[in-house]
UniProtKB/TrEMBL annotation, chains A, B:
Residues 161-263 form the Acyl-CoA oxidase/dehydrogenase middle domain. It comes from Hypericibacter adhaerens. This is Acyl-CoA dehydrogenase. GO terms for molecular function: flavin adenine dinucleotide binding; oxidoreductase activity, acting on the CH-CH group of donors. Residues 469-581 form the Acetyl-CoA dehydrogenase-like C-terminal domain. Residues 284-450 form the Acyl-CoA dehydrogenase/oxidase C-terminal domain. Pfam families: Acyl-CoA_dh_1 (PF00441), Acyl-CoA_dh_C (PF12806), Acyl-CoA_dh_M (PF02770), Acyl-CoA_dh_N (PF02771). Keywords: FAD, Flavoprotein, Oxidoreductase. Residues 40-155 form the Acyl-CoA dehydrogenase/oxidase N-terminal domain. SUPFAM superfamilies: Acyl-CoA dehydrogenase C-terminal domain-like, Acyl-CoA dehydrogenase NM domain-like. Its cofactor is FAD.
Amino acid sequence: MTIARRRAEIEFHLFDVLGIDEVSRWPAFDGQDGTAWRSVIDTAEQLALSHFAPHNREADHREPWIENGKVRTVDGVKEAIAAFAEAGFMNAHRPVDEGGLGLPWTVVQGAFALFQAANIATAAYPFLTIAAANMLSAFGTEAQKVRFLPHLGSGRFLATMALSEPQAGSGLADIRTRARPLEDGSYALTGTKQWISGGAHALSDTIVHFVLARIEGAPAGVKGISLFIVPRDWVEADGSLGAFNNVALVSLLHKMGYRGTTSTILNLGEAGLCRGFLMGEAHRGLDYMFKMMNEARIGVGLGAAMLALAGFHCALDYCATRRQGRPLGDRNPDQPPVPIDQHPDVKHMLLAQKAYAEGSLGLCLYCATLVDRQQRHPDPATRQRSGVLLDLLTPVAKSFPSAYGPKANDLAIQCLGGYGYTRDFPVEQYYRDNRLNPIHEGTNGIQALDLLGRKLTRDGGDAYRALRATIHADLDGRSEPEIDELIRAWRRIDDAMTVLLVSFSAGRAADCLANASAFLDAFGLAVIAWRLAVQAHAAERSGKDSAAARGRRQALKWFAAVELPRVAPLLALVERCDPVAAETDAAWL
Amino acid sequence: MTIARRRAEIEFHLFDVLGIDEVSRWPAFDGQDGTAWRSVIDTAEQLALSHFAPHNREADHREPWIENGKVRTVDGVKEAIAAFAEAGFMNAHRPVDEGGLGLPWTVVQGAFALFQAANIATAAYPFLTIAAANMLSAFGTEAQKVRFLPHLGSGRFLATMALSEPQAGSGLADIRTRARPLEDGSYALTGTKQWISGGAHALSDTIVHFVLARIEGAPAGVKGISLFIVPRDWVEADGSLGAFNNVALVSLLHKMGYRGTTSTILNLGEAGLCRGFLMGEAHRGLDYMFKMMNEARIGVGLGAAMLALAGFHCALDYCATRRQGRPLGDRNPDQPPVPIDQHPDVKHMLLAQKAYAEGSLGLCLYCATLVDRQQRHPDPATRQRSGVLLDLLTPVAKSFPSAYGPKANDLAIQCLGGYGYTRDFPVEQYYRDNRLNPIHEGTNGIQALDLLGRKLTRDGGDAYRALRATIHADLDGRSEPEIDELIRAWRRIDDAMTVLLVSFSAGRAADCLANASAFLDAFGLAVIAWRLAVQAHAAERSGKDSAAARGRRQALKWFAAVELPRVAPLLALVERCDPVAAETDAAWL
């Protein structure tokens, strides 16, 4: 039942909120329509149910292990990935003439969300592979594409993003992995990579690592980092496999959640030559990686949102059937206890989960439509404007779902009480799995610096003005009380922007950035309120009195009443450059 | 190193903040002094390190299992409990003429906190046993005390609190376990109990269950519940063991954390006679249980605070040595990266953990001094007043640490990044263990109803006035900016109290209670700010410029700047009886 609800939620966003039908009128998607896209979602729902969900619990219980020198995973993972690739999902976004299905990114993301909800850990393998293939497609040479893309698309090869090292996680400037040019134009790599998800397994013929490294003599810092394609086993031009390429597993890392995804320390070139291909130009590796990374960040947000949604649906089911206690005003013990979803405190917890999960999902799918508009909209001005909005919203789409998704899972546990704390119900696993999301693909602290230090304040705040115009257009003429609250919150952010732009141009950027996380939180709340409002309006178009429309309206009201009042005090911290953190010497603590 | 820091923190609260030395002048503690108490803390530190900490990780990794029909636990648990009892900690609070050490409860709690931090799951066995023994000591007959107390004190028997049933957790009114009077004055019990911590194990000769049940013909609801002493194996008057008493293990429950503590479903009297002794009067079981429960609730808060503190200390150590990134204003990659505790965002996370952990711990130990004053203070008016304050603060001492302690653990994980998410560092276990605390011994939603619906509004708000007078006395004449913030927050609560008392007397209690959790949160924030202020002042008495004094001042400042602004909007929800939750029909969600 819950998977049907998840699918209905995805379709609501795609068709009712985001109006994806419009996309079928763009030349890029000629011949496609809503019917075709619904059948893609249908296939995803079926495969998620038949191939991804069944081993989700077992893969958590029995994390990948080493047996006879090979990394093993529970039964079902390899078959799930094969079925996923077989149905075309590895290539779903790629144009038909490149072997893909040519689908809009929004549809692809809507479908992928169902796999994430069913089994986030198994979905991580194709997630990384798709992101890598998109990067290769954008920046690789023709020869590189021919050599790798078909096999990444078929699932014969899987891929990783090998950025971090033991001493360099958030601080990529300090990457030490080295690349030495060889006579044939390839490079010899040496170094250690850590936290490499999907870095070792027996799920594909080989693993293609996309590795950040420094070419010998490169400048220090982020401007001296290049990107290399480094297969575990050498890949010939025709895609056939050669000898082991000396990408060696040092060890598996053991995590609190996401346990079905191997996390690894890898050694490159220690026991022999490890060769890789330079992708694109030397020293521009971080630019390319960030193209992928921005896509991956929204994908992290999407996964966090789906885990939140899955937990919310589980809590809804439980609270509707669990009877306990009596109404506050009528405690007669001779009456039977009521379902706990009649208690206001439980309703608060359900409304919070609904607002966090549906708002997060809505934002991530909205970002997917911005990708489509940026890449394929017939109007160049729309393409440009969509890119600007996407860039601005990416840190929010990564951080809000990954900060509030775990809160939603926390509330789902609380709704289920002792049961929620046991491994007999799925919510505790969602809670553990989701805890990775504020960490990987750029911690939420990094997102805060990205938003305030870069995206928001550059070009005199142009991107912000574009966002405000969009919100204005969406809410124009509305005057419900909760919309008024929302508009007030945005006016409050306008004021803060004025203060911040002055501070930044007066050279006080570092002072402002000391409270960047508070700003990100305030901004995220206002963004989500806007999406919840748009979603409530979309639901009300087919009748204000339907249960679904009332529910979305209540989630908006709850968010406006409980969360939006936090915006102003958070902004005050940033505006006054509150010094409490900056002036603290950690030695005092 | 971290355990030494924990011990120093406990001693700071006992001696510098709470002035426990004063207690040695009360007749009840004649002959004791600070030197003796420091040596008790010293013993606790040693035992926690030598017997509790070593198996903490393993007990989490390998939760209790059934082997040949017996429940097994990892090596070390039984020895730890034996060493704890041997050192006198089971009886530490009981008067010397009852075989105890006659220590103040504050000292006992300070010592116990060190065991909780070292291994919360193993500490749960004595925790439950001590609480049960205290209840028996207060309400049992002489014969019952003689039969059980010495063996609970020696650790030969361990105890449980058997309240919940599969259909009755928060709603104890619906308990179904039955008690039928037997001719010898004992009772035959039948029924099923669930979530019984420590309900099955081989750590003691037998297990004494303190069971809530209905005597046949008792009134419905909470006024028909009695309390029974039900040993797993029959206990003769001389303490020797008889036959199996038909308290049978149905199954072990498998939890996300706290895994070293068995959690059980028990069946009473299914396969044969299960006998128990009525404790106190019939139908008054819940009153007795709540005497114990209030003590246990503060103990839950204390455990949550210590897990938060343990995680905070781990994060401090990590952030001082992990080098990554450069200062915001000076990103030169030729300079080495700085320890991450120099980054403002990391300092925010450390300050938050410090405020949550030290504020929570301070409140719980303050409540322990209220227990001492209520029970042993020479002045009857002080005894009465301390009881009133204790009663009012108990739901806060349970809920704030258990709501904000997991937040502290969440931030500790974030400070450690990917490392924090792995099982190589202890913070992920703290996070999982601590997640139980908002659920057991009365969910935090139940605490909210207890505070607003009962403790705060009865007697026209007398208890609240007593608290306000205490706070006033503590802060009188202080005028630092953060103290002003704190006083403003309390004035805001005064206003809310006026509104609420009017609403309650106008019969609108149920409307107010729909936002009880928001009120509890606001009230808890203001209470913790008060304790942080008292703690900062205590640290400053030995010099304002010491690192420790500056650190406590910064934690107070951080809390005043970031958390106290949340008080007013939370109160507004309650004052206006915000209807968003109450008016929501769960079927809309």
